[in-house]
Amino acid sequence: MPKHIILDTDPGIDDSLAILLALASPEIVLDGISTIHGNASTTQVTTNALSILKLAHANQIPVYRGCELPLVQPSLLSPETHGNSGLGYAKLPEPAARPQVKHGSDFIIEHIMSHPGEISLVAIGPLTNVALAVRKEPRIVENVKEVFVMGGAIKYQGNTTPLAEYNTYVDPHAAHVVFHSGMPIVLTPLDVTYDCIFLKEDLNRLLKIDSPITKFIADATRFYMEFHDEYQKIDGCVINDPMTLALTYMPEICDYQDLYVDVDISTGVGLGNTFADFYNYEKKAPNMRVALGVRPRMFMELFLERMEKLARVNS
Ligand code: RIB
Ligand code: CA
Which of 6, 82, 105, 216 could disulfide-link 132, Cβ–Cβ 3.0 to 4.6 Å? Predict the structure, then answer.
């Protein structure tokens, strides 16, 4: 039985790979996309989501535009990481489709409430839409099937400040609302995603297939690889979001611990920092399942196989 998912996303180069992986995975049905500010403006990431769906001949999937700004913090986009367009060097034709009228947070609420216990929410950008949905309709907490969150750094260093990962740093207050909401969360932090590096030889394998899909992946990830080399001296690029998506149907890629996790919303150097109470000092029950071990090549092989399949049917 395939899982029905909502993808809340800020495409974004690795987000675009997560959308493509969702479309290439018969284990899931992508019921809709809600877009969120982050890697680029909400206008830009919404256009990008529509363009990526068109690229993969999936125009039937509805896209709902979400929040423009974090709950409290000022906007923090990441052109240095994803390019001004949000898709690196990739150039996609303007999409014909338009976003739906409904707000992304309202789509999250209405879809979960009309399918109690059946919808998996996959959040791979700042958590503003999800936090707003929780505050507007608290009952989604017990009606959502599960929530997969890409974000945070538990034992690992930050990628946006020395302590904080991008999604939780951009909107730490939203992350705080979501982390303490009571929703069944599976967290995919940098601790595991930084072991999943998309290498030049992985890209060369995909380029053996002549397809608009492989050309897009090459043009988008070339920019992303240049960023990782210049800023983090990494050979390749960290594809956080497709890895998070893969855990919805292949959880064995990772090893998990049930932990009490919090996020720093104070105004000091730790803003957005996520930390786990490994020794249970706070005597609080775990609020999420955290991926802390990973089998990187199990994920990468899955990703490459699915991209090859998608490229062949879109050649
Ligand atoms: O820190 C990595 C995360 O922030 C990824 O989801 C990336 O797309 C950005 O949103
Ligand atoms: Ca993202």
Answer: 105
pLDDT tens string 114-163: 999 999 999 999 999 999 999 999 999 999 999 999 999 999 999 999 99
Ligand 1 atom nearest to 12, measured from its CA: 8
The backbone torsions φ and ψ at residue 164, rounded to the nearest 5 degrees and listed phi first, read: -120, 140
Ligand 1 close to Cβ of residue 150 (< 6 A) = yes
Pocket test for ligand 1, best of 240, 244, 273 (most atoms within 8 A of CB): 240
Q: Which CATH superfamily is domain 3-313 in?
A: Ribonucleoside hydrolase-like (3.90.245.10)
Q: How buried is 161 (Cβ within 10 angstroms: 0-12 exposed, 13-18 middle, 19+ buried)?
A: middle
- Inter-axis angle of helices 212-232 and 13-23, nearest 10: 140
Give pLDDT, residue 40: 98
146 phi and psi, to 5 degrees? -165, 160
Q: How far is the CA of 22 from the centre of ligand 2 (A)?
A: 14
How far is 278 from 202, CA to CA, in rounded Å? 36
What residues of the chain score a pLDDT lower than 70? Answer: none
Domain residue ranges in the chain = 3-313
Q: Calculate the alpha carbon distances from 1 to 29, 68, 103, 111, 246 in Å.
A: 10, 35, 29, 19, 16
Strands 197-198 and 237-238: antiparallel
The pLDDT value recorded for residue 315 is: 83
pLDDT at 44: 98
> Looking at ligand 1, which atom is closest to the CA of residue 10?
10
**Closest C-alpha residue for ligand 1 atom 1:** 166
pTM of the entire predicted model: 0.98
Residue 143 phi, psi dihedral angles, 5° rounding: -105, -15
Q: Tokens at residue 28, please? A: 């899931």
